[in-house]
Amino acid sequence: MKRRIRVLLSAAASAALALGAVSTAAAPGAYAAPKPKEPVSYDRYVALGDSYTAAPLVPVTDPAGGCFRSTNNYPNQLARTLGVKTLVDVSCSGADTTDMTSPQQTPLGPVPPQFDALTPDTDLVTVSIGGNDENVFGTLVGYCTTLRSTDPTGSPCRDQMRADAGGDRLMNATTRTRARVDQVVAQIRQRAPQAKIVVVGYPQIIPTSGTCVDRLPLADGDYAYARLINQRLDAALKHAAQSNKATFADIWKASKGHDVCSADPWINGQVNDPARASAYHPFGNEQTAIAELVAGKLSPATA
C-alpha cells in the first residue's frame, strides 16, 4: 500500500486537520465491544499493526505522529472491555513488516520501530501486518482500479501482474510476505516471552461474486483475482499464528457478508468519509467485531 497509502493518508490528514484533528461523530465509548463472560486481567497490552489496526478516520482519530490511530480502533475497544491497565497502541497507517524493527516514515515524520514497545512484562500482544509489504494492497486499490477503463469487462490487472517473466507479481509477493509475517510473530515471542499473542487476520474486502464499481472500480474480471490476493494475505497471518503457537482471530470468517459491495459493509469504498473511515479502510463496526472476537479468544477457557 505504500505509495497509495501515502496518498490516502494525505487526504486523511487533510480531513482530520479540517475537523480540528478530532471528529465528534462518536465518543470514545460509542463503539463498545461486549464484555467477555468472565473477566481476564492484563497489565500491559501492546497493539502492533498497519492501518487496518490503526483505523484512520474512525472517530475519534488522532493524527499525532502521522499514524492516524483511532481512539475507537479495536485495540482501544479491547482494552476498555478487558480493563487493561496499560495500552500501548503503536499501530500505524502505512506500516509493513520492516517497520516492526526499523523507523517508519509517515506523512508527519518518522516514528520508532513498533517492536520498541515490547517489553519483558508485556502480557498481551495483538498484531496484524503484511498487506503493505511490496505494495500489494496499494497495487490493488491504487493501480489496478485505474485499469478498468482499458478493459471494463476483462481482467487487465491480473493480466499485467501475470506478464512478468518470473510469474504472477502479486502472488509471488504474498508468498514472500508469508515468510516475513512468520518471522514477525516469532520475534514477538522472543521479545515478550510472557505475552499472550493474538494474530488478527484481514477481513473479506472483495465480494465472492458481483461488482460495485462505484465503491471499488476494478474491472469486472479482476474482482476474483483481487479476492484471491486478499485471501492469501489473510492466510499468511493464519499460518504465522499456527507456526508460532499463537492465537488466531479469524476476522475473514467473521466478515462474511460484510465486504465492500455488501448492504452492510465493514470496509469503506473509494471515497474518504471524514466522519467514518478512510478510503478502502475499516468502518467502526468492523473494529468492534474484531474487539469482540479477540475478547472471546481471551476468556479463561481459551487464554
UniProtKB/TrEMBL annotation:
Entry's Gene Ontology BP terms: triglyceride catabolic process
Kindly indicate whether the keyword DNA-binding belongs to this entry: no
The stretch of residues making up the signal peptide is 1-32
Q: Which UniProt keywords apply?
A: Disulfide bond, Signal
Gene Ontology MF: a single term? triacylglycerol lipase activity
Q: Which cysteines are joined by disulfide bonds?
A: 67-92, 144-157, 212-261
Origin superkingdom: Bacteria
Pfam families per the UniProt record, alphabetical: Lipase_GDSL_2
Segments forming domain SGNH hydrolase-type esterase: 47-269
Active site, per annotation = 51 (nucleophile), 281
What is the recorded name of this protein?
GDSL family lipase
| Origin species | Enemella evansiae
Lineage summary: Bacteria, Bacillati, Actinomycetota, Actinomycetes, Propionibacteriales
